[in-house]
Design brief:
Helices cover 86% and strands 0% of the residues. By secondary structure, the protein is mainly α. The longest helix has 55 residues.
Length: 431
């Protein structure tokens, strides 16, 4: 399992570096307003995916060991297609923040992304983490390659370069997923209606519980984008979204750990083992993330101006405000994947609802008054509430004490020894 975590972490670090370059290219070529439009566009795709993933989301990981590929793929793909059509129409009618031509692209891209996600989650459910990681890494690689051609070599400055890049990334990831699951696709046959009744019920049952939490958490994490767009302008969204992207890069650590943790817990029935595993992984995650947060918070405004452009100097202050919440949210991610792994998605929903309450109360009051600083303060308090909620419940049901989450000297030594062994073993294998 440790080796899978390292592979996932390495992949996510590589993806984060490329995503950072993507943000730099977009900020330098289309400015803060263009970057704001890009953020709204990508956030809206994410919004549609929340509904698609009621059937095609994380519940696939939980159900992969229990059902065939055919039973999972067909209802998931049909549901995703239906949602893309419905949500594309709804957004076009009720959200004026995107032009009509952009809405069409958003709907199509959400469908391709959802289909790619089905392959990805099936691989995770089979604990084929390395294949899933390569599939994930392909997306930012294709995006940056396309952006460089469009914006640097062709010297264009409109948002359509990013849209083309998303088409390339999502389609490439989908096709790679088909190749990775070629045996399953080769044997794919549409069966009888009765073949899907049981799995469809399970997909909706677990998916609805999980996506309710994701729906709430989406607004918890991204409502500030739309509020800034409403009260200020897309330029402010661009500045804030860049700061959020950098701060949330810290979550690469916890997401790398949580991805393997989730697959591991979903494939075991030993509740006590799952709790002890979650405790250990939370401690590791907090220790490493704290160091990363400190480094990021110490960077001066001049760094952001040099990298992104003159409009982005405020990012330094925004990140410092976000830092405490970003660190505590790492706890939420690990504990949240524990509850997802045991099928108790409602716990994540309850935690997210607490955070969303904070976001609504503070977002509508602080953002009109404090601009991006108000958005950052709203986010950090909301992140903290999410983490504290799950932390209290996890302590109560696991019978751990809060001091059990503090790393001991012996544990640090053991972790470093394990890390060293993994690298030495890998070197020996390469030789």
């Amino acid at each position: 399992m440790f080796k899978k975590i390292l592979n996932t972490f390495g992949t996510k670090i590589a993806a984060a570096i490329i995503n950072f370059l993507i943000a730099v290219v977009l900020s330098q070529t289309i400015g803060d307003v263009g970057k704001g439009t890009q953020s709204i566009l990508l956030t809206t795709i994410t919004f549609i995916l929340i509904f698609s993933e009621i059937v095609s989301g994380e519940s696939i990981v939980l159900l992969t060991p229990r059902h065939t590929f055919k039973q999972i793929l067909i209802p998931s793909a049909l549901w995703s297609s239906l949602i893309a059509v419905i949500m594309g129409f709804a957004i076009g009618q009720f959200y004026p923040g995107l032009n009509a031509d952009l809405v069409i692209h958003v709907a199509i891209l959400s469908l391709i992304s959802s289909l790619s996600g089905i392959n990805f989650r099936y691989l995770i459910g089979k604990e084929e983490i390395k294949k899933a990681n390569y599939n994930t890494l392909l997306q930012p690689v294709l995006i940056i390659f396309t952006l460089l051609i469009y914006y640097v070599f062709l010297k264009k400055t409109d948002i359509y370069g990013y849209i083309i890049a998303l088409y390339a990334a999502y389609s490439g990831s989908f096709l790679l997923g088909i190749w990775m699951l070629r045996d399953e696709y080769a044997n794919l046959k549409i069966g009888k209606k009765t073949d899907y009744q049981g799995v469809l019920k399970d997909l909706f049952k677990y998916g609805f519980l999980n996506q309710t939490g994701h729906f709430v958490q989406f607004f918890n994490l991204r409502l500030s984008y739309y509020l800034l767009d409403n009260y200020m302008d897309k330029g402010r969204v661009g500045v804030f979204s860049n700061a959020v992207s950098l701060a949330e890069a810290i979550w690469i650590i916890s997401n790398s750990i949580a991805l393997v943790q989730y697959a591991h817990i979903a494939n075991t029935d030993d509740r006590r083992y799952a709790q002890k595993l979650t405790l250990d992984l939370t401690k590791i995650c907090l220790a490493i993330s704290a160091l990363a947060v400190i480094v990021l918070a110490l960077l001066p405004p001049q760094v952001y101006i040099f990298v992104f452009g003159d409009e982005f100097g405020e990012m330094a202050n925004i990140i410092r405000i976000l830092a405490p919440g970003v660190l505590l949210y790492c706890v939420f991610l690990i504990l949240g994947h524990y509850y997802s792994g045991i099928g108790r998605y409602q716990m994540n929903t309850f935690a997210s609802l607490c955070g969303l309450t904070i976001t609504f109360v503070l977002g509508f009051t602080l953002i009109p008054r404090l601009d991006v600083a108000g958005a950052a303060l709203t986010s950090t308090i909301s992140y903290s509430v999410n983490a504290i909620f799950l932390f209290c419940f996890f302590l109560k049901e696991s019978n751990f004490k809060w001091r059990d989450f503090i790393l001991t000297k012996t544990e640090v030594t053991d972790y470093f020894s394990e890390l060293k062994n993994q690298f030495f073993n890998k070197s020996s294998e390469n030789e």
